[in-house]
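Sample entry copied in:
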Amino acid sequence: MLLSSIRRKFARGVWPIRTLSSNAEMKEFLDYLDSLKNFEKSGVPRAAGTDSDEGFDLGRMRRLMERFGNPHTKFKAVHIAGTKGKGSTAAFISNILRTEGYSVGCYTSPHILTIRERILLGRSGHPVSAKLLNDLFHRIKQELEQAMKEENGCISHFEVFTAMAYILFADENVDIAVIEAGLGGARDATNIISSSGLAAAVITTVGEEHLAALGGSLETIAMAKAGIIKQGCPLVLGGPFVPHIERIIRDKAATMESTVVSAYDTRNRFTVKSCSILNGRPCQICDIVIQVGQDLKMSCELHDVKLKMLGDHQLQNAATATCVALCLRNLGWSISDESIRSGLEHTHLLGRSQFLSSEEAEVLGLTGATVLLDGAHTKESAKALMNTIKTAFPKARLVFVVAMASDKDHVGFAQEILSGGHVETVLLTEAAIAGGVTRTTPASLLKDSWIKASDELGIEILHDGMAEYDELINESESNLGDGMTILSTESSLKSCLRTANKILTRRGEEEKGVIVFTGSLHIAASVLASLAG
């Protein structure tokens, strides 16, 4: 009965997406996309995101858009690049604008349950309908096939879907679009917006992710992301940045005569005051005070903002979004402080600081546990995740379920989790990435990374290659590992859920803990898909 109830909620739209039925409805379209080059699935080629001869051909994207009447010139856009925080910042900005009454297009990646999530349309913020995508696909299919022929089959999955997003934004006559870059910035398919169409550029953070694809260093990554800066258009910086990296970005902005607004300006202040429970889920109570330089005369003072997105990193994203809203207000857009507050407070995202309800936890067989889904997959995001957990649940016993892509820093990620507080159990598993396994890391290789991380940190672990492990697992007492972290490889999500439930049961009713699914958005997607049925 409970499972049926949860699934009815998905069907009624309490959960944002009706996945299975909409995917079936879009089968021909999805099959077409699956036939294209998909770098999310296969991995990005070396230097593909750099502004060099080896970089993606932005001319190809421009030729494709010209074929469809250059729809990207028919709306204003906020363009967001950055190593971390792009999707959350895009969601905050979009909600602020919708709250003010604007019709907003929002384009982000990747998706969790269905590709429809990548395109949000209008004042509702709902994903694009399967019908609208289908109708558009059949309308442009012949032109797509001709373009593919002329480009020698080189047009990618991301380029086609980006083109479709821009066409839909133009068709729907959105007031403004909020667009997340896919990789880097300079050579990303989204970066065809001209200075006349750009309302503001945003760079959230610069970190060591996609190093090979973006030139091999923090400096080349910064230069790639700075490629979204356009002549005379304001640039909003999130941060914090390493000083010489910020200098690279500011120097590029200076050459483009772009005013720079920084969320980390010394006059700005944003702090987490406390954590609370709102509608059965944790939230953080924050102050956000932004005072931009006198030349722009922009300020906003918000106290006791109730953010559903937890952690200092999400507060940072909220402050960045607030700076963007103030930039737009300075350009003539009507955006009240109350719309900023309300937009921030109503923002939540699948797989980012997402807490499941007690009903959903019960369906997973994790009755009484707090279940957190978070797509952290870098050292920095792992550290932010642990800080969030320590703030919200300082005394909780922690079980982690981890699956990661092959191109991530597995050891660095593990070190941040293990050093961030005592973790009782880590269950390592595998999750498909973009519908394939090419970039999936085998659980056995993840185990090697976690063992290496624990050795380097001097943290004792008990793993399933040790004789003591089987003895411990078969014991009936609840003191698992006597202070050691237990490390186990599991063949599937279902197996992880069984093991996690076994651990919870052995703790007793008064010692329910927090179970965290992390390492990629794809493990979060697997959990949500199991709820959707």
